[in-house]
Amino acid sequence: MRVFVTAGEASGDKLGAALMQGLRALRPNVTFEGIGGPRMIEEGLQSLFPMDEISIMGISEILSQYFALKARIRETAEAVIAAKPDVLVTIDLPEFSLRVARLVKEKSDIRVVHYVAPTVWAWRPGRAAKMARHVDQVLALFPFEPPYMEAAGMRCDFVGHPVVTDPQATAADVARFRLTQGLGEAPMLLVLPGSRRSEVTRLAPVFGEVIARLHAARPDLRFVLPAAAPVAGLVQALVADWPGRPIVLDPRDLGAEAALVKRSAFAAADVALAASGTVSLELAAVGTPMVVAYDMNWISRQVIGRMLRIDTVTLVNLVSDTRVVPEFIGPKCRPGPIAEAVLATLDAPQAQARAMALTMDRLGLDGPAPGTRAAQAVLDGLADAPRP
Description:
This protein is an alpha/beta fold and 388 residues long. The protein is built from 18 helices and twelve strands. The strands form two sheets. Strands 2-1-3-4-5-6 form a six-stranded parallel sheet, with helices on both faces. A six-stranded parallel sheet has the order 9-8-7-10-11-12, with helices on both faces.
């Protein structure tokens, strides 16, 4: 069996490696070609070119790299057609993946599977119909996604979210973290202002004012910020004048311990203030209650606000079909209400416990690993596909 698989970001590389492991367990004679990062390369993939050459986000970045990206898209499609694999699996990165799929389908009948459904349930529902012209099957991370893809004419399998297999800190790890950071038994707020420079810069003034209000109301409350490596220096500078002596966990200083320290911080926290995104699932995995806050520039606020089809953007709320996690998005992202919500959550942390547990259950906790489920779905799709 021959599989051509492409990934362009660290998250996709993680999904790809798990899929490769799953396929190899089910089909030992499988061979892989494609594009991937260190995890997929460790699984035996020889990447066609470095993954980071297609890991481009944002309109301005895509425009500035347009011709180079277009050349890589064509090169990849030509490599797929020449390889004649049993299946092409494209992972996330729709700006790249779906263009490759279109070119492949124009010149072949190779089966195309796209891993990670687009958020058509949130905005731009027309994307599903456009995908269906070039994609045969979708592997979904969330249980509510298949009906949207199937309505557009594609097979869609829910395969579980990778957060359910992420390693978690032990009680000993948490105790060591609190001791090392000098936290003792003090209550702790985990502050997560995002991983991109633009969002950190935008959210830091609001979060800083929230911290000031919380410090005044609860002088015993400690503040810990696990910074992403690309913005760690920026975070250090932005929080320098915040009250309460916030602790910034800089992965550049922590070296090989960075991942463990981050996991320990998530598990040690009594409550979290987080930017919107998959981080809410990471918090749910360790049972840390949260308040979600996010803002964007004025133009994005107007455009996205008009296109949104949902009343919450917090994944825990969506997956659990509840609205227990307080969220403050766009014009509602103001320090006063956010601080009040953090204090209320700190006083009643169990209010979110059932929703977080339900979220993890629905995402596949204690079931087959997502990589195994994804591999089986790919094989089932091949078996059910009409012969050319």
